[in-house]
Design goal:
- Keywords: Glycoprotein, Glycosyltransferase, Golgi apparatus, Membrane, Signal-anchor, Transferase, Transmembrane, Transmembrane helix.
- By secondary structure, this protein is of the alpha/beta class.
- The protein has twelve helices and seven strands.
- It has one domain: sialyltransferase cstii, chain A (Alpha-Beta Complex), CATH 3.90.1480.
- Helices cover 40% and strands 9% of the residues.
- Strand 4, helix 8 and strand 5 form a beta-alpha-beta unit.
- Bound molecules: 2-acetamido-2-deoxy-beta-D-glucopyranose (NAG) (8 copies).
């Protein structure tokens, strides 16, 4: 189940990233292009054009998503990397979302310093809270709480990437200043969103864990990540195969990697915290909250953590991102 959660997070992050790009293209395009070029020239040869192409893509789906879907070919691919099989619910849900661009307050910051806060146990007792809160844009994922962990992880959240099984449903966690980026992995996820926005009873059929039964956020705080971004991260940045043998679970990127990719596109400077997984230390805390241990992640068949860690190591070694933990 956690596997799915992670996947969801990654997707959400990526969506965010696209949205930002789209809305802020005018102010950030030079920086984005430069940093991508530098990054790709040393780390990801041949992927320059991909990332540049991505900066032309709307990160969040709008109610006219079918047009872009057709241009990108997303309409010919099933969820989660396309929109096919979700259309009838997307049509309903996206009409109910009043916004599909970047929040005003961050759109206007010309030189954005961003931090992507992972949920890793390395943040326990880190006392990084004040530092994290000092960034212009703070990206968090899934149900990684702020409440009760402010000293270590801060209290502000600009974007939160999540999916139906990982979105907060307890209004204790409500933050009016957060924009939630939803990653849709299956038709049921889109159905779930449309039911919530129509104030209908939510069907819990088809979920790997009970999804949120109510929305604590206002519709203007919600965005839907463009599935094309997930496809790019999975197939072009992480080089995951598109087909897996029947005996193997298909690999999806974690929310963390999606969030970092998003940040690289929208920010002038990207720092990360809470992204260390030591898979050989199975007894260590998986998250900065709760009691799960690393063994949960080590058993995760839906992610390829080692491939992601190599990608991340490259980004850090080439100073494309700075690691705070
Ligand atoms: C980027 O876009 C160009 C033109 O639209 C296309 O020829 C090229 O294949 C794309 N590159 C990638 C990596 O998708
Ligand atoms: C952002 O900038 C636009 C135009 O540059 C301006 O109209 C708008 O009021 C600004 N918004 C904020 C929140 O500063
Ligand atoms: C964090 O600090 C508390 C109190 O100082 C201590 O009891 C706990 O063991 C520490 N946790 C870690 C993971 O270091
Ligand atoms: C939301 O932002 C406003 C304006 O910056 C601020 O006054 C308020 O305290 C913030 N609310 C929360 C819950 O962080
Ligand atoms: C991971 O954990 C193992 C066992 O606790 C330890 O020996 C190793 O040094 C750790 N690796 C890193 C990179 O922290
Ligand atoms: C992990 O925890 C279990 C039970 O708490 C303990 O038996 C085991 O020795 C621990 N292993 C390591 C490597 O610390
Ligand atoms: C974690 O374990 C502690 C001690 O066993 C327990 O008090 C606490 O309720 C657990 N937390 C969660 C989220 O399960
Ligand atoms: C994970 O990715 C690495 C590097 O791309 C690859 O060598 C490995 O076979 C992958 N593992 C799985 C289980 O897919």
């Amino acid at each position: 189940m956690r596997k799915f959660l992670f996947v969801g997070i990654v997707f959400a992050a990526l969506l965010h990233f696209m949205l930002h790009i789209f809305v802020q293209k005018k102010t950030i395009s030079t920086v984005t292009t430069d940093s991508i070029k530098e990054y790709t020239s040393v780390v990801l040869q041949g992927k320059v054009s991909l990332l540049l192409n991505m900066s032309e893509i709307d990160p969040f789906l709008c109610d006219d998503y079918r047009k872009q879907s057709a241009i990108l070919g997303s309409n010919k691919v099933d969820l989660p990397y396309g929109t096919r099989k979700g259309e009838r619910y997307f049509d309903v849900a996206l009409k109910k979302l009043p916004k599909c661009d970047f929040p005003d307050d961050i759109r206007n910051i010309s030189c954005k310093k961003c931090v992507v806060v992972g949920n890793g146990g390395v943040l326990r007792n880190s006392t990084l809270g004040k530092k994290i809160d000092s960034y212009d844009v703070i990206i968090r994922m899934n149900d990684g709480p702020v409440l009760g962990y402010e000293d270590d992880v801060g209290q502000k959240t600009t974007f939160r990437l999540c999916y139906p099984e990982s979105i907060f449903s307890d209004s204790l966690h409500y933050d009016p200043n957060t924009t939630v980026v939803l990653m849709m992995f299956k038709p049921h996820d889109v159905k779930w969103l449309s039911e919530l926005l129509l104030h209908r009873v939510v069907s819990t059929y088809g979920f790997w864990r009970k999804p949120a039964m109510k929305l604590i956020y206002q519709p203007h705080q919600l965005r839907v990540l463009n599935p094309f971004i997930l496809k790019q991260v999975s197939q072009n940045l992480l080089n995951f195969p598109t087909n897996f043998p029947k005996t193997e679970k298909p690999k999806h990127p974690t929310t963390g990697i999606i969030a970092i990719t998003l940040a690289l596109h929208i920010c002038n400077e990207v720092h990360i915290a809470g992204f260390k997984y030591n898979l050989t230390s199975l007894n260590s805390s998986l998250h900065y909250y709760g009691n799960d241990t690393m063994s949960v992640m080590a058993q995760n068949e839906y992610h390829n953590i080692s491939a992601e860690q190599m990608f991340l190591r490259d980004l850090i070694e080439h100073k494309t991102v700075t690691n705070l933990t």
